[in-house]
Amino acid sequence: MIFNGFKRPDQSVGVRNHLLVLPSVVCANDTARLIGQQLQGAVYVTHEHGCGAHYHSSSDQIRRTMIGYGSNPNVGACIVVGLGCETMDAEEIAAGIAKTGKPVAAIVIQKVGGTIKAVSQGVQTGQKMLAELSAQKRQECDLSELIFALECGGSDSNSGISANPALGVASDLLIGEGGSSILSETSEIVGAEHLMAKRAVNKEVADQILEIVHRAEQEGVKQGLDMSNLAPGNREGGLSTVEEKSLGNIHKGGTSPVQEVLEYAFKPSRKGLIIMDTPGYDVESITAMVAGGAQVIAFTTGRGTPVGCPVAPVIKICSNSDTYGKMQDNIDINAGVIIDGLSTVQEVGQQIFQELVDVSNGKLTKAEQLGFGDFSIYRPLT
Amino acid sequence: MCKKEGLVLHEKDNVGTALNDLTAGSKIPVTKNQTITLTEDIPYGFKFSLHDIARGEAIIKYGEAIGQAKDSIKAGSLVHIHNTEGQRARGDL
Q: How far is B67 from chain A (nearest CA, A)?
């Protein structure tokens, strides 16, 4: 199946054509913001990372996420802004992103001599990039180039009956077209890992699924997190235990075999259904999947959520008609019609798949219309 | 198609899910041959037991264990955190 996207020099395909302004360190946040705000159509992010000595695994993860984010095919060009004395070297991040062949610049505040000069240089560079990006046209691309990130947040007991199974149908349809989906949030596979392991393509992948779930469970217990105790909104939505939430959650992954298990923010090496080991925090999980190359995010919710992503469209799918009625400004598709007896899981799954195609062709999602762009990198504690 | 009042997701399940706010005393059809009389109000989205469940018995939904009964649960009762506890990710088991 064909859609119209942006072909990148590294053969990847974007569904958007953003100029991203990315600070490599917290101290460059405001400078990145000023550059981004001056440039019509640019997106910028801010974060709390990048300064001093991190644990090795932590700095590797932050660096990998930043490079992956800038490398996402929806990003047509990128400006990395650094301070100059930080661990997360802006020039190194920029060099990592430049391997994709897209235009990338690094601006280092201490080198150029202050923020006014840095902003000036960033805006001048960004203007040239925007001129180039705005001249690029969408071209025919194959749907098999797409990676669909499967996220859920603010789940209720309807999620596992309506929105998640319908998303699973859409995910299977994309995989049937040769594309890929990423199922994430390991803490929400706890109690359902045996079912996912049975769907692994081989024993190695099955063992990896069991291993990441075991690790998340142990890590949670070590940190004193009671994962069995759900978020208040989950409990008020009728969910009683983490096992119940997980068994509903895994429906997002449809029925396809699991091809590969990835650590946080790594790129898939295979097509089909992938599991990425991310924490059960929506924005950190989405950021990781986008850093892994996902171009479109599907986000199922029972309680409702406004979350967006700066560089990728987020299609919001609601599990029940009450929340949809209240939060239509934030939600794209109402899967509550399944609960209401007005439609089937299969029909809503088809609708989500069609929305994925339309959004990939350029249709704006609700989160994009409202300009929501949340960004957060998960930092491991060791 | 019309909206159901309660939904049982798998033949092994011992709980159903309320698809409406259900009131005590209502008779809810859950399978072709079975109707459950609710002993208490079941809010929309919450679970009710399909038969008596003994203390320590598994609560089954989606055909899988979602936790254990903390107390004995009479048929038609609300099944939630007051009488159900998860067995995973707790650190105390």
A: 7
Taking the C-alpha atoms of residue A153 and residue A184, their distance in angstroms, rounded to an integer, is: 12
Task: Tell how far CA B45 is from the center of its chain.
Answer: 11
- Cα gap A102→A76, rounded to integer Å: 6
Which DSSP symbol is given to A278?
-
- CATH classification at residue A51: 3.40.50.360
Q: What are the structural domains, with CATH classification, of chain B?
A: 6-85 (2.30.130.110)
User: Is the CB of residue B93 less than 8 Å away from at least one CB of chain A?
Assistant: no
Percentage of chain B modeled with pLDDT above 90: 81
Residues B45, A320: C-beta atoms closer than 8 Å: yes
State whether A258 and A304 are in the same domain: yes
Contact B30/B47 with Cβ under 8 angstroms? no
Q: How far is B88 from chain A (nearest CA, A)?
A: 6
- Note whether A241 contacts B80, CB cutoff 8 Å: no
Q: How far B42 CA sits from the closest chain A CA (Å)? A: 10
Per residue in A351-370, pLDDT (tens digit) is 999 999 999 999 999 999 99
Q: Which of A217, A235, A238 sits opposite B89 (nearest CB)?
A: A217
Identify which of A157, A190, A322 has the shortest CB distance to residue B89: A190
Q: Give me the domain span that covers residue A28.
A: 18-134
Residues 6+ apart with CB under 8 A from B10: B60, B61, B62, B63, B64
Per-residue pLDDT, averaged over A219-232, amounts to: 76
Listed range (A16-30, A223-237, A290-304) with the worst mean pLDDT: A223-237
> What is the value of pTM for the model shown?
0.94
